[in-house]
Amino acid sequence: MTSTSTPGGEAARPFLRVCNLVKAFGPFLALKDISLDVMEGEFVCFLGPSGCGKTTLLRAIAGLDLQTSGGIEQAGRDISLLPPSQRDFGIVFQSYALFPNLTVARNVAYGLESLGLKRAEIDRRVADLLELVGLPDQGAKYPSQLSGGQQQRIALARAIAMSPGLLLLDEPLSALDAKVRVHLRHEIKSLQRRIGVTTIMVTHDQEEALSMADRIVVMNHGVIEQVGTPAEIYREPATLFVADFIGAMNKLPVRVEDAEHARLGETRLQCRPHALDPGAEATLAIRPEDVVPVEGNGTGSANRFAVTISEMEFLGSFWRAWLAGPAFGAAGLEADFSVNAIRRLGLEEGKQLTVELPADRLHVFAGAGVDEDG
Amino acid sequence: MASLGLGSRAAKPKLDRDAWAVRAFMLVIALYLVVALALPLTVMLSKSLSTYRFDLTAFELQIDKGEGWSVPVTLASLADALPADKRPELATNHDGRFGVVDLLPDFSFRAKTRYRLRNAADGAVYLYGSERIADREWHEYSSNEFRRVVVRPAASRGLDNYRTYFSTPSLVQSIENSAWIASVSTVLTVTLAFAFAYALARTCMPLKGLFRLVALIPILVPSLLPGIALVYLFGNQGFLKELLLGESIYGPIGIVIGSVFFTFPHAFIIIATALAISDSRLHEAAVSLKAGAWRRFWTVTVPGARYGLISAAFVVFTLVITDFGLPKVIGGQYDVLAVDIYKQVIGQQNFEMGAVVSVVLLVPAVIAFAVDRAIQRRQVAALSARAVPLEPKPDPAADWSGFALCLVVAVFIVGILAVCQFAALVKLWPYDLSPSLRNYEFDRMDGGGWEAYGNSIRMALYAAAIGTAVVFVGAYLVEKTQGFRTGRTLFQFLAMMPMAIPGMVLGLAYIFFFNDPANPLNFLYGTMAILVLSTVTHFYTVSHLTAVTALKQMDHEFESVSASLKQPVWRLFARVTVPVCLPAILDISIYLFVNAMTTVSAVVFLYAPTTKLASVAVLNMDDAGDIAPAAAMGMMIFYTNVAARLVHLALTRGLLARTQAWRRR
Ligand SMILES: Nc1ncnc2c1ncn2[C@@H]1O[C@H](COP(=O)(O)OP(=O)(O)OP(=O)(O)O)[C@@H](O)[C@H]1O
Ligand SMILES: [Mg+2]
């Protein structure tokens, strides 16, 4: 289910709508006019650097910290001003917040116990949930007797026990070590698919977001920079911030010539179509893996440069090379070459070669710097 | 994006039942603090600014000596006609009465003269016997009746009381006295407590556990108990009297020694904590830099514990300057502020002056409190860096000198109690040392008897139960609920305030507030309830801080999780918060219990004949000369507190054993 940006197109009504949300802490705006739609069953990640407002947005959706203005609608119901207890969500925090004095089973059963169910029915539901998160025999233990990863899964089981319409996860994996983290990513994702619950996860780990999300919401300084599938976000970043924040990116200062051309020093480059005015200063961006080594000496044709390999680093499945050339200034150009290409072209440090910057991989963004975007 | 029509309205949350319940509870507890603290203090402050003066211009008099009524004259003009040395003193207090006949030099109640008096101004009042006359009519009296006519003073606001206070040398002297004994006691106690704590923390001497226990004993007895022991040891019949080289124990010497005794544990706890957190790595660094032991002591140990030392100094200073029981018992003619309040109120019934002295006493207490809070905040910051605790290494010379020092302190502490216990168990110290239980026949003495002891236990249990509930729920609301920001800040402030309010001041404020017939809460006056109220309020701050510390250690997302699971707050509170915080809750209740048993100052103005307390009985029996029974009662308080502590220990141990499966230590 790799959905595109809005599955169902016009026909489907979004499950969750966030409209013009603003959150102020005194004079400081943590959220500036955020609007967002989430479809039923979607797995959405809020991704962004620390302090960009991800948690604030999540807590506003949960009703834990009320927004300053703006509205939220869930399943066709205006929930903007409802207290958390009248909304329909389950939540997992970074700290898990498991009740230390209750056993794992009682933790999971905490919400079920007041539904007026029979004891046996509750026990059955708890057993099912523990089974679902892969910890069937741990019900009698206390949280402190479990590992971090296990506690995380119990917190998840507790959050979905009441079959909420919306599952909210605030950095659920960041307290775990790397290995457990990768494993749990998988588990959470497949669990989410099985029960089909609409899920929003906050993270500042791009790898986590790229591997788990149906759609990613990239945030910065309290605004949404881009919303899209992982592939869109990665391949077609909408802003320089997104381009820079996700994956590696070469950035080169250029001057715009026309809608498809920019000038890098003396060289006129063809690039992706853009809407910047001719003559404007801009930044040209290309990912290291999009730099193509070409055989022979074809400097004459478009978007090709003669460069020297100043340094190489072996990164397992590929090599990263730093390329020096008159067009690239002191910073040089980073390029990832496959092990094959290295062997085929006989590349090594100090060697000269020609690289092509394919026009459809050359993004042009307004502004000269990275930190000046909004 | 299509607008939902939710646009940009300013968000105001809908409140669910929980939110209403939380607000209601918060209101109740805030109301508690306002009624039990803010209002009484305000009333007291305003009393200190109330002055009462006989306004003689407000009364007119006519006299008929058989030849018809004279022209009306004001009483003021009569007073002016008197010779200068006969003129009446017009300043008075709210209870003042002034006999009109004092203005008539040739008055005789047998004369046939008739008198007419009237109030010449609104608000003027005079009494005929107990009949209150406030109208503006003329009233006629025979000379026999006129004897019984007195005028009442008019109230006004101003600083007159303060002017009187500061121009009365005997009263002002108390400020100096109080400051002097508090300073001397502070220096002595902090030095001694530091040495004691240092020896325990940094040497390998034996019996550390025992010494630590002994150091805490004074908390369990009323502050006036050491005074009684000192009387036995150094008083007029004391067998160690010669040691004083002719000085009297009744006065600053006695107060200071007794103060060192009862403030020692407070200083010890603070300094021991400060020493425990100082970092061994600093010492290792100093050693590696070849600093000698002396240099290390001054450059590492003392600076490391400096916040603790300063904090301890302020705490001791405040305790001594606000203490009432000890100087009452052993102060003799040496007046201090806390006793002045008592004398003004109980002795002279001059409540306004009592209020003035209270305000004067508030000043150092509030300053000490503010400084201490500021320091505590810094100390917390210093604490957050991870320190490696220091492990002392054996060093016979240091170990044994430390041991000797601790032994001296321990003998001093235990000795004081032993003297009291011994004196209580003999017939008549020092003349007849044969054993006797006669001193325990409290019912034969003035002071309240065994009933007072029973009252004390009841009062302490109530204070522990009710106080713990109020404090813990209050702390929970402040710490764990959202919104209502200004209300919470105000609440925090009110909760911190009792620490700065001396017990005597609180007690006096309660008289003003609750003894006012116009106050709907007047029915509390003279009941057990008001004793519980004043005790809980007096010891609110430390309890509150204990609760807040425990609550801060709980994950702050529990409330959010609970709400997301659609569970009411009270369920989380009962099922998770209270069980997890139970050790702290037990700590709060034992703290309240022990202090309720020992406090004198918070209750001395408030007990009634039916609600006499053991601690007050100690004071009153001592006052009446029944010193041995006073000592016996003091020791009863001690044993009761020891028993309470043992119960507390057993409960805590049992609880931790039962819950260790989930408590990570
Ligand atoms: N209670 C508060 N009072 C004042 N400012 C706050 C408060 N809570 C958050 N902020 C500010 O709002 C901004 C957004 O905070 P938020 O917690 O949403 O960031 P985040 O994206 O979740 O970051 P992180 O990745 O570090 O968790 C931050 O600059 C933060 O300092
Ligand atoms: Mg966050």
Structure, explained:
- Chain B: Residues 175-372, 453-648 form the ABC transmembrane type-1 domain.
- The complex is a heterodimer of chains A (374) and B (665).
- Chain A has 374 residues and is an alpha+beta fold.
- Chain A has helices spanning 54-62, 104-109, 119-132, 148-160, 178-195, 206-212, 230-235, 240-245, 339-345, and strands spanning 16-25, 28-38, 43-47, 69-74, 77-78, 89-92, 166-170, 198-203, 215-220, 223-228, 250-258, 261-264, 267-270, 281-286, 292-294, 304-314, 318-324, 333-338, 352-356, 363-366.
- A six-stranded mixed beta sheet of chain A has the order 6-7-8-3-9-10, with helices on both faces. A five-stranded antiparallel beta sheet of chain A has the order 13-12-11-14-20.
- The relative contact order of chain A is 0.12.
- Mean pLDDT of chain A is 88; it is low at 1-10 and 370-374.
- Chain B is α+β, with helices and mostly antiparallel strands and 665 residues long.
- Chain B has three domains: 17-48 and 443-664, MetI-like fold (Orthogonal Bundle), CATH 1.10.3720; 51-157, no CATH class; 163-382 and 399-436, MetI-like (MetI-like fold, Orthogonal Bundle), CATH 1.10.3720.10.
- Chain B contains 24 helices and 13 strands.
- In chain B, helix 1 (17-48) packs across helix 14 (351-384) and helix 23 (614-623) runs antiparallel to helix 24.
- Mean pLDDT of chain B is 87; it is low at 1-9.
- Chain A binds chain B through residues 17, 19-20, 22, 35, 37, 62-73, 78, 80-87, 89-91, 93, 95, 97, 99-102, 110-111, 114, 142-145, 158-159, 161-162, 164, and chain B through 1, 3-16, 18-19, 482, 555, 557-558, 560-568, 571, 575-576, 579-580, 659, 661-664.
- Adenosine-5'-triphosphate (ATP) is lined by residues 25, 28, 30, 48, 50-56, 204 of chain A.
